[in-house]
């Protein structure tokens, strides 16, 4: 962990006595760390740094799973083919400790800064900022735990070091990992403390203010906690991630149903989802319109937490469009994923199905297949894509590191209206980074409810069966609004597999599957990535790339550089 602290110093974090500072020269005066105490905007910048580098839907780590491959030698491709180890911890999140240290430094200086001249307003600002810092510290630790929690070499289920203070450059960095349940408890405690300071939403609604502010001046409260603070971490966001924490803990790779974690997750999720109308609040466009929206639109009912709108993310289209549209075609969906999309009536897409045609395998399929994946004959905004052995640069391996390797290209998350010219000029688009959205929460509740009591176990009036029915109906599955296949699901195990498949489809290419497979204890069983060729007459499957994961793959390695330097940090088993 020491190199994290060293890097912070090198990258202008704190201590002027090691030649670094948080400040840049102002005119001819070289101000030191003391500026933090009298410049509130400068001090708040330490907190705002912790909002940088969030985990979003744009990691495209699917190339490390059975859902996709890359057409270039990415870290995820190397990971999948056997190069993942403690020296090459491709998915490591150990670096999130840098933001943890920023937050701890910020908390340590909160009382020293005059945020507003009015005493009551100053106190309200201080308490809101403290709540944000504690919540973000918990969130960063959750992301680190998701990656690095696991069974240590001692055979014990371990969590991670939990850091609640700022370490000076000469501090003792040899910090041991906590037990897994203790880590979960520490994260949950920080989330709970933050909930005492932050409102559910930044709308200034006096009825929703935390109890500690009941005696505060109404106008001052609304000024500090009003809509101008939107997009900061809120009580609603905290509860969503607390539910994610408990679901992670309950999952087979960790506590495997022991304790109350499934119930705790379900209780929080039911509260959040009933607050938007329960199943009736499921956004009818949430399976695609949470990201693709007209310029100027600011209404995202599917999205619980997101970044500000940006016009600088057309790199997504540049990287993912097929070469015929002047893109690089980097992420290529697999035949494995395509096969996971059911037929239109909800039954699995196999040759046993009366309407499945192996010579026309994309007909009568779940409409999400056409929305999410560019297959032979599918189009982007009326521009058809031909993926055939008969020629054309969109065919398999036609252009090195630009053409598909699997017979498919990505369509989901792309703005189909974008035009990329041959010289690289690209038309405008607006995007958001998504941190958490409601469909994920609905699927989490379905999973927790099913684990607690099977397909029809109701939590807050919602069961796995009626949640999955609503999600599949929204997608367009079912004839005359009936889902014949769902009606055949009667056991907990069958519903478990259906929920997992719906998570795979609804959340594909958003960075979820890699961590879902790991918490389910299945990542070590990841099947090889398959593709589909078209020779002009018929389609045929082929092996694109093996998946070479060992029995240790469900728990990510701690970077070997940290373990070598600090003997108190126990490595995960098998790394």
Automatic annotation (TrEMBL):
Gene3D superfamilies hit by this protein: 1.25.40.390
Cellular component GO terms, alphabetical: cell outer membrane
Keyword field: Cell outer membrane, Membrane, Signal
Pfam families (UniProt xref): SusD-like_3, SusD_RagB
SusD-like N-terminal domain ranges (all copies): 71-211
Domain called RagB/SusD: residue spans: 301-575
InterPro entries per UniProt: SusD-like_N, SusD_RagB_dom, TPR-like_helical_dom_sf
Keyword Signal carried by entry: yes
Signal in keyword set: yes
Subcellular location: Cell outer membrane
Entry-linked SUPFAM superfamilies: TPR-like (SSF48452)
Primary localisation category: membrane
Entry's family note: Belongs to the SusD family.
Protein name: Starch-binding associating with outer membrane
Native source organism of the sequence: Pseudozobellia thermophila
């Amino acid at each position: 962990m020491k190199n994290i602290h060293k890097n912070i110093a090198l990258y202008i974090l704190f201590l002027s006595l090691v030649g670094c500072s948080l400040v840049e020269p102002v005119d001819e005066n070289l101000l030191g760390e003391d500026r933090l105490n009298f410049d509130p905007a400068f001090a708040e910048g330490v907190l705002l740094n912790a909002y940088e580098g969030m985990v979003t839907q744009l990691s495209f780590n699917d190339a490390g799973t059975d859902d996709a491959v890359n057409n270039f030698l990415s870290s995820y491709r190397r990971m999948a083919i056997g190069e993942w180890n403690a020296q090459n911890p491709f998915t490591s999140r150990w670096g999130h400790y840098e933001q943890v240290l920023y937050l701890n430094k910020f908390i340590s200086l909160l009382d020293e800064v005059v945020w507003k001249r009015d005493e009551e307003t100053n106190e309200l600002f201080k308490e809101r900022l403290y709540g944000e810092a504690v919540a973000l510290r918990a969130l960063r630790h959750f992301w680190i735990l998701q990656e690095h929690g696991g069974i240590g070499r001692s055979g014990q289920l371990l969590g991670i070091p939990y850091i609640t203070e700022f370490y000076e450059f000469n501090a003792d960095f040899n910090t041991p990992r906590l037990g897994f349940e203790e880590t979960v408890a520490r994260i949950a405690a920080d989330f709970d403390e933050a909930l005492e300071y932050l409102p559910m939403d930044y709308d200034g609604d006096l009825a929703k203010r935390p109890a500690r502010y009941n005696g505060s001046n109404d106008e001052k409260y609304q000024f500090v906690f009003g809509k101008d603070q939107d997009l900061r971490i809120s009580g609603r966001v905290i509860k969503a991630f607390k539910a994610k924490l408990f679901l992670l803990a309950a999952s087979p790779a960790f506590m495997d149903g022991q304790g109350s974690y499934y119930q705790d997750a379900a209780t929080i999720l039911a509260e959040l989802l009933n607050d938007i109308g329960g199943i009736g609040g499921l956004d009818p466009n949430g399976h695609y319109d949470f990201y693709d929206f007209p310029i100027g639109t600011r209404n995202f009912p599917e999205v619980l937490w997101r970044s500000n709108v940006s016009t600088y993310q057309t790199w997504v289209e540049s990287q993912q469009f097929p070469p015929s549209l002047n893109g690089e075609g980097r992420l290529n969906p697999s035949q494995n994923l395509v096969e996971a999309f059911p037929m239109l009536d909800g039954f699995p897409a196999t040759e046993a199905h009366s309407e499945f045609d192996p010579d026309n395998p994309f007909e009568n399929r779940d409409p999400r297949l056409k929305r999410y994946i560019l297959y032979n004959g599918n189009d982007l905004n009326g521009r058809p894509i031909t993926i055939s052995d008969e020629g054309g640069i969109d065919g398999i391996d036609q252009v090195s590191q630009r053409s598909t390797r699997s017979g498919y290209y990505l369509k989901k998350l792309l703005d189909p209206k974008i035009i990329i010219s041959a010289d690289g000029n690209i038309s405008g688009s607006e995007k958001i980074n998504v941190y958490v959205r409601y469909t994920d929460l609905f699927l989490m509740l379905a999973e927790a409810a099913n684990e607690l009591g099977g397909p029809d176990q109701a939590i807050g009036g919602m069961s796995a069966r009626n949640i999955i029915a609503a999600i599949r109906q929204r997608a367009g599955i079912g004839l005359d609004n009936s889902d014949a296949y769902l009606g055949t699901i009667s056991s907990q195990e069958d519903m478990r597999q259906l929920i997992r498949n719906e998570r795979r489809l609804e959340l594909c290419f958003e960075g979820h599957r890699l961590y879902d497979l790991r918490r389910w204890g299945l990542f070590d069983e990841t099947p090889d990535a398959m593709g589909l060729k078209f020779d002009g007459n018929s389609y045929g499957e082929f092996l694109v790339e093996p998946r070479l994961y060992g029995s240790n793959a469900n728990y990510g390695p701690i970077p070997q550089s940290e373990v070598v330097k600090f003997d108190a940090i126990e490595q995960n088993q098998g790394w």
